Amino acid sequence: MRSPASRKLIASLLGAVTALTGSADTQPAQDHADQGGGGGASTAAVAPSPEPAQDRTAPVERAPGFVRQAAAVGDDERRAVLDYWTPRRMAGATPLIPGLDDLAGGVLPDAPEPQASGDAGAARPWTGGGRVAATTGKVFLTLDGRDFTCSAAVVSADNRDTVLTAGHCLKDGTGPWVENWSFVPGYDDGESPDGRYTARQMFVAPEWSQQADDSYDFGMAVLNPSDGEHVQDRVGAQPIAFGAEPDDPTYAFGYPATGRFEGRRLRYCTGDTVGDDGGTTAEGMACAMTEGSSGGPWLNDFDPETGTGTVVSVISFKYADDSRTQYGPHLGGAAETLFERAQSF
């Protein structure tokens, strides 16, 4: 079920821009999964095929349980995406909050930071290193000609190339797919210590693509190798669990980039979770992180000494009347179907 638009505040600027300004290419009741996008991919629509042996370079595949968009599938497309993200563009890919404030009278409130360092919800810099610092990264993407950021995490997969993020970091609900999708694991203050990876395939659930249902705001990107090396071989991965409930406490990680946050370093929150009473199946936790953290992982059984845990959700959205609580979708059977398809590429 989609949460009420009058209350909901997407944790990414992408959803906020669309909700406030609309999109000339978006019709509320229509699935725009065939609009191309994805950074260098052909925009010509092709007839979807249910056959497993279909052409994996085809721009769009719609099937029960998933919608796929081809991205930078060739060497020229991959190089074009990497060339697009110059240091200047990466530095400038931050939410356009001044414009939104002028338009909406400050509809994107900055959550007050808890006063005591031990208070639940404090978005602290992560200084512990370990696997979470290597496998969580910053995402750079283009939507409707504007450059934005999200977060994502490498998860253990057969293809060794799969990352988990929020659905709205791949496709703007019923609107267009994003372009120029690039993942920087371990991003730290402008540095890319383990390279930059472009997406070759992107996957979202039909419920997100056709209805923008926030209970399904999760997605997978399958990456191209960087210098011939799979991302999982270079930085490791966190296991992902389906059908699991978040722990108390749960740890959430991401790169918030609005308000007092600049998106330069990995931050985290930890705390207990509570079910959403706004009409979704998501869970909520107190967290001061803002836009830019969307797509960052929620981890169960987290060990601060090693930075290891199990991914059970992603940072998805906040409500406009409750900036202190972030929500993450339940990763159930629908997410598992998406993952199985993604890791087969």
From TrEMBL:
Lineage: Bacteria, Bacillati, Actinomycetota, Actinomycetes, Streptosporangiales
Organism listed in the record: Streptomonospora salina
Signal peptide: 1-24
Keyword annotations: Signal
InterPro entries linked: Glutamyl_endopeptidase (IPR050966), Peptidase_S1_PA (IPR009003), Peptidase_S1_PA_chymotrypsin (IPR043504), Trypsin_dom (IPR001254), TRYPSIN_HIS (IPR018114)
Source organism superkingdom: Bacteria
One function term, GO molecular function aspect: serine-type endopeptidase activity
Database matches in Pfam families: Trypsin
Cross-referenced Gene3D superfamilies: Trypsin-like serine proteases
Keyword Nucleus in record: no
Every Peptidase S1 domain range: 139-324
Keyword Signal part of the UniProt annotation: yes
Region of interest called Disordered, as start-end residue ranges on this chain: 23-63
Listed name of the protein: V8-like Glu-specific endopeptidase
Swiss-Prot/TrEMBL GO biological process terms: proteolysis
